[in-house]
Write a structure and sequence with these properties.
about 300 residues, alpha+beta, Ribosomal Protein S5, domain 2, 9-stranded mixed sheet, 7 helices
Amino acid sequence: MSLQALYDVPAPAKLNLFLHVIGRRADGYHLLQSPFVLIDWADTLHFEKRSDSLLRRHDLGPALPEDDLCLRAARTLQAASDCAAGVDIHIAKQVPWGAGMGGGSSDAATTLLALNRLWGLNWPRARLAELGLALGADVPFFVGGQNAFVEGIGERLTPLRCAPARYAVVKPAASLPTREIFNHPLMVRNTVAAILEGCSEEAGTFEVPQGWQIGFGKNDLQAAAENQCAEVAQAAGWLERHYGNSRMTGSGSAVFARAGKSDSPSATFPADDLPAGWVGRMCCSLSEHPLRAWAN
């Protein structure tokens, strides 16, 4: 019997251990280099197959935009595959939006992977990733199923092996519009593209040295973000006081700090000290995406 539903399907967030902007294409897209690491802060989605071709989303938490990335991913896959089936998508949103943690892109990737399974398409991962790139630059990473060194506009992925770690992640109340950050005069666009010299390559996988966790590189968007939004600088300062390090992730307002190894008992999150309106938690890095086995 064919699958009729998939429940409790995770969509994990990511952190950019650093984010370097190394140039800009003629079409305006920026060229990036960044190690993306999956973390266990995740949304949860449920998928129920429909016999008609309708695509419906049901919010189990905060209301999402009417036509969010989940629906766009479902519509894109349905059109590309000529699939006659539809789906009801129920989403329990946990990852904050506007944070630079890839929450919407992860939801889209999980939708592609789940519907590929639910609709019996059995498309290869590369084909799903190609569809994902049209939805957003971070979607191919989440479809890829593992930590990766990301280049280009998000389409070039090299598997990345990182030591397990805990990260304290804070999202202030404010969110950041990505377009404004990328167009800000303080944003650096000419970081030298020599990052991989610090890595060892083994069978096509790059291994991140311990010092890379936060000590290496920077986020080229952070100065512009702090100029645009004082809360980003405040969040960075809050983490510096508690953990001695901090860095913005992606192009959103979330900031993170390395807080020890994944099994460190001292890695606690001082939630009582968090300013009103902010959200945060202690996160563990993931060695791979929970749905990695769902596509080849």
